[in-house]
Amino acid sequence: MTKYDVLKKYFGYDSFREAQETLVDGILSGKDAIGIMPTGAGKSLCYQIPALLMPGITLVISPLISLMKDQVSTLNQAGIHAAYLNSSLTAGQYRTAMKNMVNGQYKIVYVAPERLLTESFIEAVRSMDISMISVDEAHCISQWGQDFRPSYLKIPDFVSLLQKRPILTAFTATATREVKEDILALLGLENPVQITTGFDRKNLSFSVRQPGNKWRSALDVIEAHHGECGIIYCLTRKTVEEVCEQLIKSGYSATRYHAGLDDAERRNNQDDFLYDRKQIMVATNAFGMGIDKSNVRYVIHYNMPKNIESYYQEAGRAGRDGLPSDCVLLYSGQDVVTNQFFIDRMEPPEGVDEETAATIREREQERLKRMTYYCFTSDCLREYILRYFGEYGSGYCGNCSNCLTNFEEKDVTEIARNLIGCVKECRWAYGIVTIADAVHGSKNTKILRARLNENPYYGSCTEISIHLLRQVMNHLVMHGYLAVSDDEYHVVRLTDTSDEILSGGSVLMKTAKEQPKTAVPKNTKKSPSVTAEQDIDHGLFEKLRALRLEIARKEKVPPYIVFSDKTLVHMCILKPKTRSEMLRVSGVGEMKYEKYGEQFLDVVKNRSD
Ligand code: ADP
Ligand code: MG
Fold this sequence. Notes:
This protein is of the alpha/beta class.
């Protein structure tokens, strides 16, 4: 079999994506590989296809139980023998799986990093022919990353115990430069094929709102996606409870997920969402890693998350099938306070010394700052995120709330001079909020106690909205005209370039034109639903969906593991009437055809008779 045969037969796809093919070819020629590709880019196939073509077995190291379970169900559905080894198995199940593995029954085995160095596992693999070890979510090996897992550091020890060094491959979606270097060095990849495709997810449209009423704002998004699946992320369990309860009371099909629920309920709620029994998942960040549900049409952040990595990963759970989806962040100042609280009380990862722990905390602090700027920037949001990961976009994506609300280039020189002047004349240093309040002429106790009302710039901008003042403050910090201290006080100080502004330089800032208060941003309102977007037979789509649900329930797998929405949409377009026509549908491979092909053909035929 060739790689193309495997792709078609098991996965039902006609062609590789460019990056996939390069990685697959590299691996098949015996090289190590590293793939840094955004969520939904199709990293799994990059190692699964070589795994099926190589003589021995492939071990996939993966950090989460839910992730392994999902991947293994997908493979089993496609007719591939695979299994996982982790703590969710009973002792008996574990032994059986190990025995099957040793007997060569599986081509691909997913294993938790904690299992690698156990005696029984080492004993078992000693006699096996291991062709490749693939490390999924490889950023977990780096302390620079946000999901540092000390157990990932054991991978090289494990590899060194093997008689023959297998091919090593690593995959992740979120790697800044430092993280990538860590992956290469710590895993000991040797002269690997390296692919970094863009982080950009063009089908996602980003927006930030600072609503007076978050609940109303969330409802606007949900209503614009009537009948579709979405996730609402909250920072705390308490908010999850409140939002979920309110949704259910208002008649929505919602469920919840956070670390405070017992295992059984969590599993149950997660399945309700995955199996399309509930449409809205309200959750903390405990939910979602490795969740492959392809038809999530929107992700609302009810609170600002702690950093851009988390944000992009969570928001990225929308639109994995490549169809247009919305990512909306609802910001309020309190979110910064809550995140700060979490950082202050952060427990360092296990086995980490004090100095490292302090460094980790500092980095978290810096990340929070960059996340907060995201909520205030008037630049293209997509550009902001891409730049964070070291890429450059065009500066205008035309599909984020900043690009869509019509930029307005404002001359804010006067305001900037007053703000910088105020900082300069202060006897002590203060934070962004206090400085903005002072030039706004606030009479709050903090201002009066600090005698900021005696500052020559006090009240110099009474007619400017406090919001704009803070935006300009953030703009000045972002562009280096002012700096915020890295300690816990976050006080504003002058920089080398502050004087440029005071002595004649000008400051232009792009801002969104004021929108009427009740308007839903265009992108959300118009966001096409899966079926409306293309000119397809709606009734047929619903019938296919119903059949899919019936099969999924019978087989106890999530519907998207039977066929993705995209595959159903493709069926509606091609309207296949024969086996060979059905096999042309993207996502229908031979194995799946054998299982379900006829049933879906019947639905299509009846419909068009
Ligand atoms: P990642 O791990 O990079 O986030 P996945 O491996 O989970 O992404 O793949 C995302 C989706 O893209 C899956 O539904 C997968 O079946 C689909 N996919 C992968 N490769 C292809 C391809 N060559 N053609 C069409 N769909 C693909
Ligand atoms: Mg993946």
